[in-house]
């Protein structure tokens, strides 16, 4: 459950903020949307989310936010019919800030916004959550009057691939975790531990490495298979956990992963746990957490969570993951795609002991919420300026 502080003072002006994304089924963007909605409500503002819905809607509404169900993320020409509906909502609800978080919903929201009179439309914010493929379709994510980049790596990406974007419009706001939930002293509930290890007796006496993330080529499950094979060849008593769901469109890839596991004779050494609501507990009982993305990630939320729990992370040294490891756990960096380097590093860690995480994680939920709400308030206020002067 996303945590917020109770507001101590009413805001000078109560804002209405709309966030748009495809759905609320889970994931980093979805969680961040709830966290900002929670902060808005706690600050005395009004939070509305437009999406197709999903399992997180109940949690969103329990925070005091509102949800409007529109399938704005469906890849169909019919989705264009929602443009006038969104435009009407922005007008009728007196929306002050429109925050676009994903490309297709962003096009719907942007075209709705663009069709409103400039003097009465909301201020526009976009967030670049990832290193999207450059081109027309992705360009909408840089059309905000303010463009939030979730790491310095994404700032560099925008400057390189979108030179038309005025650098003063870019605002770097790191994603963050709640130190009250993710801390080195955290230990899972004894009942959870008993149940989990009872359900997974194959972990007894094993060195546990976990690869969190949905089952997709980007997350590097095939690299994991080769890493586990290499560690087994070196005599490491390792067992790997895969924690993440499989979308129906990714079934063919998942079959490829299972075939590779069987080909390498690792059926008893890799366990798929499916989608989990107890990822914090899983990370906390892991000896090492892996990040093996096949292209640079913008930030890597599970890396932050694992490091904040005091768990060592080994990850490919690029994008936001490399940025985090450089600041918090440089011993965990290996070259992108460096399966052999990963095997050698992990084998040494098993034999000699894993280096501890000694640096405090600086990426906090409170900072992310505070900086985002401040951006909204300044952009919507007189200092935001009619032509969108820089907010820094």
From TrEMBL:
Glycosyl transferase family domain spans which residues? 198-352
Q: Which stretches make up the Glycosyltransferase subfamily 4-like N-terminal domain?
A: 27-180
Domain of life of the native organism: Bacteria
Recorded coiled-coil stretches: none
Q: Which InterPro entries match?
A: Glyco_trans_1, Glyco_trans_4-like_N
Q: CDD domains from the entry?
A: GT4_WavL-like
Q: What protein am I looking at?
A: Glycosyltransferase family 4 protein
- Origin species, per record, is Guyparkeria halophila
């Amino acid at each position: 459950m996303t945590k917020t502080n109770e507001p101590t003072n009413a805001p000078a002006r109560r804002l209405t903020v709309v966030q748009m994304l495809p759905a609320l089924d889970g994931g980093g963007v979805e969680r961040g949307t709830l966290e900002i909605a929670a902060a808005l409500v706690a600050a005395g503002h009004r939070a509305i989310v437009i999406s197709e819905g999903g399992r997180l809607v109940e949690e969103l509404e329990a925070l005091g936010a509102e949800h409007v169900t529109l399938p704005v993320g469906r890849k169909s020409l019919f989705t264009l019919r929602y443009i006038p509906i969104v435009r009407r909502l922005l007008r009728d609800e007196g929306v002050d800030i429109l925050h676009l978080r994903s490309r297709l919903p962003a096009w719907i929201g942007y075209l709705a916004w663009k069709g409103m009179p400039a003097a009465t439309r909301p201020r526009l914010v976009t967030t670049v959550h990832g290193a999207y493929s450059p081109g027309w379709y992705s360009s909408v994510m840089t059309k905000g009057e303010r463009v939030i980049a979730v790491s310095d790596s994404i700032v560099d990406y925008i400057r390189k691939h979108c030179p038309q974007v005025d650098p003063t419009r870019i605002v770097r706001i790191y994603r963050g975790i709640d130190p009250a939930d993710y801390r080195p002293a955290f230990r899972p509930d004894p009942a959870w531990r008993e149940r989990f290890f009872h359900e997974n007796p194959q972990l007894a006496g094993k060195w546990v490495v976990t690869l969190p993330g949905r089952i997709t080529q980007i997350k590097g499950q095939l690299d994991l298979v080769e890493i586990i094979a290499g560690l087994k060849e070196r005599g490491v008593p390792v067992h790997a956990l895969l924690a993440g769901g499989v979308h129906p469109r990714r079934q063919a890839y998942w079959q490829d992963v299972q075939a590779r596991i069987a080909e390498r004779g690792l059926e008893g050494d890799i366990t798929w746990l499916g989608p989990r609501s107890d990822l914090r507990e899983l990370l906390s009982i892991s000896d090492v957490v892996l990040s093996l993305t096949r292209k640079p990630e913008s930030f890597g939320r599970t890396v932050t969570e694992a490091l904040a729990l005091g768990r060592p992370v080994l990850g490919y040294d690029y994008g936001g993951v490399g940025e985090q490891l450089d600041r918090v756990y440089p011993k965990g960096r290996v070259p992108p795609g460096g399966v052999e380097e990963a095997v050698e590093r992990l084998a040494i860690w098993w034999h000699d002991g894993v280096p501890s995480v000694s640096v405090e994680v600086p990426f906090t939920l409170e900072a992310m919420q505070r900086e985002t709400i401040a951006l909204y308030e300044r952009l919507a206020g007189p200092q935001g300026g009619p032509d969108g002067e820089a907010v820094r």
